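Re: the 503-residue chain
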Amino acid sequence: MSTDQVPADEPYEQLTARVERIANVGNAAGVLQWDQEVMMPEGGTPARAQQLSALSAISHELLTDEETGELLEALETGDLDEEQTAVVREVRRRYDRATKVPEELVTEITETASNAHPVWVEAKAEDDFEQFAPTLEKLVELKREYAAHIDPDEDPYAVLFADYEPYIDLETAERVLTRLREELVPLIDAIGETDADLETDAFAGTFDDETQEELCRDVLDTLGYDWDHGRLDTAPHPFSTGTQFDARVTTRFDESDLLGSITSTIHEFGHANYTLGLPAEGYGTPLGEARDLTVHESQSRLWENHIGRSQAFWERFLPAVTERFPALEGVSPRAAYESANQVYDDNLIRVEADELTYHLHIVIRFEIERDLISGDLEVADVPEVWNEKYESYLGVRPETDAEGCLQDIHWSHGSFGYFPTYSLGSVLAAQLYAAAQADLGDLEEHTRNGEFDDLNGWLRERVHRHGKRYTTPDLIQRASGETYSADDFLEYVQTKYGELYDL
């Protein structure tokens, strides 16, 4: 029997068995990466780099094996149902990209990125960009080479961006980022000129790490985190990782920034909540995997901003805060809400940024990494260009590289093209929240009552349960009833901050 006559179910079962093996190798690597960032002793890096490199090579070998291509060809001429078609589409895309990249390059990138993590940590701690620069140069070179193998005729940054967001093109991302910059800057300027008297110091004080952790566990309890399938730890740069069976959250503590630990925990809850909502029966296949980073970030930003920064949330959660920290008993929910939403005129740190200026932090990173990959910017010039852009876009200038170009972990991972998805996800969060509110009614009242089952059920039904069944634009259309747009986000921030600042 020729391949075009093979029944679809037989090669499909063979393909999914192969894909599940690849997924399990990748998920094992994910646990090792979590361990490296959370609890591995510093001296473990050389062995960990080799372990991750070996797992990366195994995944690459399994994916790029000729048998994978043969199975895809057989299936693409067969009679597939909707779910099978989606799996074949996603595996085909990964296969086509992976087969263009030499295995030794994949291994080198993985090992270099693993070794880069402790170099970045030390360079940031010692405020020494020159210590990190050679590693960054190497990663830039490797990722340029990687992009050239995939598509030598395409903008290399567009190729890298597609690793994180394959179904929203770079042109769309640039258009959204440009619109945010053009419409947020006047709003931020107007806020800077207003004489509105907001409470900005509701969370002033000193807060010990141990009690902060207890409070972060309180907030995860409030939102409904499933402790049977997750855990809370600390990391230099908060993140969430895992599968629908084990989705872990990390946060960080600063004794002078209680609000920061709360919001970062809520943010990472959003990621973990999405991961835990993926269908168990799809585990190991694209049907059980998250739909890339714009959608993933929409979930974290929805919970962090639309829930965690709402006045209704502080009406609900403030008693837990004052129980842990009695010194804050005089704070009102309105004061907490105002402090949680103040727009900073002097903030240098992206993860500590307010909801509006945050996107200018993203634009700066986007412009710098795009120029790095294109060769229009040398690594040695990154600190100065970074500082100039901060002064130009945000009116502040970093005094150290630790609070400047060394503040983020992403480049040490070789994650060029990742940053735009933060803003794209924030935009999608507003679009999904508006659609959920239209269906469910007053979500602020739900939040005020600590009732999150309806919203979470809506997200499970409209977003989580589909995994990668649909492309990003199709999923957005199905979930919200509209095409992807920044309209809801801009209406949301203009209304919210107009009220806060009497604009």
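The longest helix spans residues 9-38.
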